Amino acid sequence: EAGVTQFPSHSVIEKGQTVTLRCDPISGHDNLYWYRRVMGKEIKFLLHFVKESKQDESGMPNNRFLAERTGGTYSTLKVQPAELEDSGVYFCASSQRGTRGETQYFGPGTRLLVL
Amino acid sequence: AQKITQTQPGMFVQEKEAVTLDCTYDTSDQSYGLFWYKQPSSGEMIFLIYQGSYDEQNATEGRYSLNFQKARKSANLVISASQLGDSAMYFCAMRAYFGNEKLTFGTGTRLTIIP
């Protein structure tokens, strides 16, 4: 069974540009989460999808961040326009509802550097 | 609100020795889950072990065990017979089971196994 995949693995952009991150969850997982780790700080929650619906987007830092999950499969996270403080590692995770613990399985992350 | 505290920023352990990574938590939720993840230098987040707040026995997964002390709000990870491949960052995390499903992470412990 394929794990959570994320694309790209790295992205270097200039301040003011747009970047779109993609996450493909484990097949059959209805829950999809985005997290971010800024250098030296804790991993922080951004938002949670259940299928195509946003269940919780309380962690989204501001309206420069837009997440979608059309069709309830893969998800994209767009940052527009990117700022220096957006640099960090963006993780996607997925879990299957109704399983013990609903363990979240993480992708390898996208390392974003905004110059 | 939930909070995870990992007080050991770094640890050095001799190969084949057992190691305990500390984790304390704070929550007002009655039902919750505790998780440990490993992040090797390659960057991916690997799920290690899960403990439910109502589980009567401590969780074990191979060389990993979780020393759960509910009254003390601690969920320490024990790795037996450490191996060089155990060198990594280790994150303790928790989530509630009703309402907010996001994971709250600690700051992590960097474990280095010495040959």
Walk me through the structure:
The complex is a heterodimer of chains A (115) and B (115). With 115 residues, chain A is mainly beta. Chain A has strands spanning 5-7, 10-13, 19-24, 31-37, 43-50, 53-56, 65-68, 75-79, 88-95, 105-106, 110-114. In chain A, strands 2, 4, 5, 6, 9, 10 and 11 form a 7-stranded mixed β-sheet that branches. Chain A has a 4-stranded antiparallel β-sheet with strand order 1-3-8-7, with no helix packed on it. In chain A, a hairpin with a 6-residue loop joins β7 and β8. Chain A is globular. Chain B is mainly beta and 115 residues long. In chain B, 0% of the residues lie in helices and 52% in strands. Chain B has no helices and 12 strands. In chain B, strands 2, 5, 6, 10, 11 and 12 form a 6-stranded mixed β-sheet that branches. A 4-stranded antiparallel β-sheet of chain B has the order 3-9-8-7, with no helix packed on it. A two-stranded antiparallel ribbon of chain B has the order 1-4. In chain B, β7 and β8 (64-69) form a beta hairpin. Chain B is globular, with a radius of gyration of 14 Å. The mean pLDDT of chain B is 95.
How far apart, in Å, are the first and last alpha carbons of chain B? 41 Å
Head-to-tail CA distance between termini of chain A: 37 Å
Percent strand of chain A equals over 45%
- The number of E-state strands of chain A comes to 11
Shape of chain A: globular
- Biggest pleated-sheet summary of chain B: 6 strands, mixed
Question: Any chance you could write out the topology, listing elements then pairs?
Answer:
The complex is a heterodimer of chains A (115) and B (115).
Chain A (H helix, E strand, L loop, with lengths): L4 E3 L2 E4 L5 E6 L6 E7 L5 E8 L2 E4 L8 E4 L6 E5 L8 E8 L9 E2 L3 E5 L1
Parallel strand pairs in A: 2-11
Antiparallel strand pairs in A: 1-3, 3-8, 4-5, 4-9, 5-6, 7-8, 9-10, 9-11
Chain B lengths: L2 E3 L4 E5 L4 E3 L2 E3 L5 E8 L6 E7 L7 E2 L2 E6 L4 E6 L8 E9 L7 E2 L3 E6 L1
Parallel strand pairs in B: 2-12
Antiparallel strand pairs in B: 1-4, 3-9, 5-6, 5-10, 7-8, 8-9, 10-11, 10-12
